[in-house]
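tool_call predict_complex ligand=cobalamin
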Amino acid sequence: MTNPSESNPGTASHDEAFSPALSGIGIGAIAHEIGLTKDTLRVWERRYGFPQPSRSAGGERLYPQEQVTKLRLVKRLLDAGHRPSKVLAQSIEVLQQLAESSGVGQDAPDTELDHLVALLRAGAYDDFRFELLKRATRDGLERFVIDVAAPLSARVGNAWAAGTLQVYHEHLFSEAMQVTLRTLLRPLSDALRGRGGKPRMLLTTLSGESHGLGILMAEAMFSLAECECIGLGPQTPLHDIVNAVTAHDVDIVALSFTAVMPAQAIASGLGELRHLLPPEVQIWVGGSSPALRRKLQDGVTHVPGLTPIDDAVAQWRQAAVL
Ligand code: B12
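tool_result ok
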């Protein structure tokens, strides 16, 4: 018998993945939520003795909530460069201290950002949206992206991981942030269209990466660098990317990856896309996935953040005139 959660990892939210009737969470749902493969969880269990799931009547692994909490912390420490052998055997208290001392999940002090998170937590969405738009119009697109959108996303993620914001807060946050960014971006995109601004960029994420704010922030920065941008939104199948590249005479495909997408899926997706695209079309990748810090497929360039975008574009333009 197969556990339904093994064959169908369920929805994105850990709240929805929890099934009280089974008194634990299935391996597929856990792997999906935390961004690990099922194999990794099984190997850790064998090699390090953690996690230690119970079993359903049918023999399927069921993970109690406290192990899920520890696994989430373990994943964040690994993303920050710690080794499985050093973290898996430790108690959650030791791991919390380690996270604190190495700055994992710690927010830099900023009262304006704290205020925005407090509005979200209190359910004051109209005020939240208003404050975002006010800061965006006051500061301008570039400063808003760098000083508000990027650090606020990290803060909201940390608050979710610490249990002080719920998944629905994250949804409301991303909705409000997308509306604000698009409102500021639209007149710029309209003015750029038809000017033949080079490079011509196609921006999206691969299937499996549902986080779309990073690539939208990158689109804002590429537009400010006077690139013509075609934003497809998140999760575009590979063949659709290839079709859009041909139809719009695209120079660069820009993709975003968070730590949720397993490294293997990133490597195979990039490998296949590289194979399908003509060699003169470049692939640029960015985002917080630790997989991007490793050696990447030939023909794929890592742009390490939003501020290096200007330099990367300048280099591309220089190479294009040679
Ligand atoms: C909003 C949000 C959501 C929304 C997404 C809605 C949407 N339409 O985008 C919802 C609620 C759906 C969601 C779902 C989930 N999320 Co979420 N989410 C976030 C949050 C708060 C922001 C997401 C985002 O877009 N980040 C991407 C950008 C903003 O950040 P970045 O990757 O660091 O990239 C930076 C730069 O590198 C650059 N950049 C990004 N891309 C590119 C590309 C190029 C080309 C360039 C040049 C630069 C560049 O821009 C960013 C600016 O700082 C983050 C917190 C965070 N720190 O990111 C969590 C976060 C990514 N989510 C997380 C998790 C665990 C999940 C869920 C599994 C569980 C859940 N929360 O329900 C599901 C997974 C869904 C799935 N399987 O895909 C974790 C991932 C942790 C991990 N190690 O795996 C995070 C980090 C929260 C946390 N602190 O734990 N999420």
